[in-house]
Amino acid sequence: MDQASSLRKMVEATGKRDRLNRLETAVENPENVPRVIAITSGKGGVGKTNIVGNMAMALSAIGKKVLVLDADLGLANIDIIFGIHPQYNIGHVLNGEKELSDIIVDGPPGIRIIPAGSGFVNLTHLTEGQKLSLLSEFEALNEISDIFLIDTGAGISSNVLYFNLAADECIIVATSEPTSITDAYAMIKVMSSQHNAKHFKLLANMVKSESEAKSVYKNLCQAADRFLSGVAIEYLGYIPRDEKICDAVKQRRTVMDFCPASASSCQFKKLAQRLWESPKRSDNVGNIKFFLHRYISAKTNTADQHAL
Ligand SMILES: Nc1ncnc2c1ncn2[C@@H]1O[C@H](COP(=O)(O)OP(=O)(O)OP(=O)(O)O)[C@@H](O)[C@H]1O
Ligand SMILES: [Mg+2]
To answer: What is the tally of structural domains in the chain?
Structure first.
């Protein structure tokens, strides 16, 4: 069953036709819904959180409304670079203590953050009624955002994979270290061979030059072309190694805010424009609600398999 028909079945079961109509509008007009992009990596510590924070700043600077999901279920580092202190997370929404709107935190202008906390882990235990109500709360997010960036944890653990698979687009971050390239390849391999994901964007971080970035890209493409079938990796660009990023983190700021003229900030501005203008190559339908639906379905199916 495809995602639209499974959603339709779920919503029809509750007799809520108006919701179904709004869903159909979203499917028919994919241009009007936010782009849902996961920023991920095979190896940890390659710069995902700084990339999400600074891309959010750069996208907001070109007038886009950005929503960030802090989906690193371990350490919530995005709080540090935005200098925020969220009190609540999705867990509080799931247990009924808070509405989704209560837990969303305002970051720098044009940017809002949803702290996932460990709440996402419990999504398989929801009743159908709870799921529907959470999905409809997520639907409202489509109206307050042009782009939804997901800062995932690192590695091929199932939680990271669910976020990547549920997103419309997946940006893999890698550095020039061989282990980072190997782990990026491992991520692409699992996503393509086990889950049929075929499109990826590569962002090289902490590189000395564009030519170093291109060689990271080339290495990854060569391995993918040789061993994986039908995988397309697009070169999104690079961020240079820049001490100003570390200085900014120490001050609990993004480098875009701390030093907007730095080499890395200039690249973030270019990348944000390029990302926004790049065509969406995805089989998924862009919509934050569908993202959540896909995430819950993937988790629930896996939980069912384990239970058998
Ligand atoms: N382009 C860069 N130049 C210099 N330092 C960088 C750059 N990008 C990131 N860093 C530094 O690398 C470290 C790790 O960055 P970050 O926390 O963003 O990585 P991550 O991929 O989110 O890590 P994790 O996998 O633990 O979530 C930070 O100390 C950050 O300051
Ligand atoms: Mg991180």
So the answer is: 1
Cβ(249) – ligand 1 distance below 6 Å: yes
Amino acid identity for residue 183 in this structure: D
Residue with tokens 């809002």: 112
Which residue CA neighbors atom 25 of ligand 1 most closely?
A: 44
Could you give the CA distance from residue 255 to residue 81 in angstroms, rounded to a whole number? 9
DSSP secondary structure letter of residue 118:
T
DSSP code at position 67: E
pTM metric for this prediction: 0.87
- Domain membership flag for residue 26: no
Across-strand partners of 70? 115, 151
| Nearest atom of ligand 1 to the alpha carbon of 249 | 31
Asked if the structure places residue 22 within a domain, the reply is no
Contact 162/296 with Cβ under 8 angstroms? no
> Is 13 part of a structural domain of the chain?
no
Assess contact for 276 and 147: CB atoms under 8 A: yes
Q: Tell me the pLDDT tens digit for each residue of 166-220.
A: 898 999 999 999 999 999 999 999 999 998 899 999 999 999 999 999 999 999 9
Locate tokens 């890395």: which residue?
Answer: 264
| Closest C-alpha among 260, 209, 213, 266 to residue 236 | 213
* Cβ-contact 40, 240 below 8 angstroms: no
Cα dist from 270 to 6, 157, 201, 212, whole Å = 39, 31, 15, 18
Q: Is 97 helix (H, G, I), strand (E, B) or coil?
A: coil
For ligand 1, whether the C-beta of 34 sits within 6 Å is no
Strands 111-115 and 105-106, bridge-based pairing:
antiparallel
Within-domain flag for 207: yes
Angle ∠(209,211,214) on CA atoms, nearest 5: 115
